[in-house]
Design brief:
The protein is 30% helix and 37% strand. The chain has an eight-stranded antiparallel sheet with strand order 1-2-3-4-8-7-6-5. The longest helix is centred in the last third of the chain and has 25 residues. The radius of gyration is 16 Å and the shape is globular. The protein starts with a helix and ends in an 11-residue tail after the last helix.
Length: 200
């Protein structure tokens, strides 16, 4: 793996730990990207509910449908902005490497990476599993769309989940399997929200 991606991986791993700690904060989220929402996908409104800015070069915001909560959501939209030399290709490659490493402990892991013909954007969809803090099984499908920004890159993502043994199985068989391609197409067609970072 190139040294640049290796360094990016170490930085993003540290970032994951910080974001996990930040999720427990009860403070009102701060909107930093000029995308207050609501965002529309599949005929549903997603409202801004959470943000993080742990490093000067990284911004993250999350959006949920009305009535859903971060600790047990059914679907979520995400926007990540990473400033620096890493572009869409490098971020997609890092996520693929992360998923490959995860396979050792997660038999559900599967993914597919699509590159736009001109190389300007990448769309990665993947499925993983895990458990809630109470030990309940989670099956999670995500699609991440990476595009370039002046001075960095942006990721627009969708996450959908099923909970419990039966709920996870139903999510995989009855929802994800027949609708996966439609979900990917929806994200690919969605207009990328204009990003307006705060002036330092």
């Amino acid at each position: 793996m190139p040294d640049g991606i290796r360094c990016l991986g170490r930085a993003l791993f540290a970032l994951v730990l910080l974001l996990a700690a930040a999720t427990s904060s009860a403070e009102a989220p701060i909107e930093r990207l000029g995308v207050p929402g609501p965002l529309q996908l599949d005929g549903q409104a997603f409202h801004f509910v959470w943000s993080s800015h742990p490093f000067p070069h990284f911004y993250k915001q999350e959006y949920l449908p009305e009535g859903q909560v971060l600790t047990r959501y059914g679907q979520m939209l995400m926007i990540d902005v990473l400033l620096g030399d890493a572009g869409p290709r490098e971020l997609a490659q890092f996520k693929v490497a992360e998923l490959e490493a995860r396979k050792a402990g997660d038999p559900v892991v599967n993914y597919d990476l699509i590159m736009k013909e001109d190389g300007s954007s990448y769309l990665l969809d993947f499925v993983v599993s895990g458990r809630t803090s109470g030990g309940e099984m989670i099956v999670e499908w995500n699609a991440y769309r990476y595009e370039a920004l002046p001075g960095g890159a942006v990721m627009l993502g969708i996450s959908r989940r099923g909970y419990g043994h039966d709920g996870g199985r139903s999510f995989l068989v009855d929802e994800m399997k027949p609708r996966r391609q439609a979900w990917i197409s929806e994200l690919a067609r969605l207009d990328m929200p204009p990003i307006a970072l705060p002036v330092p």
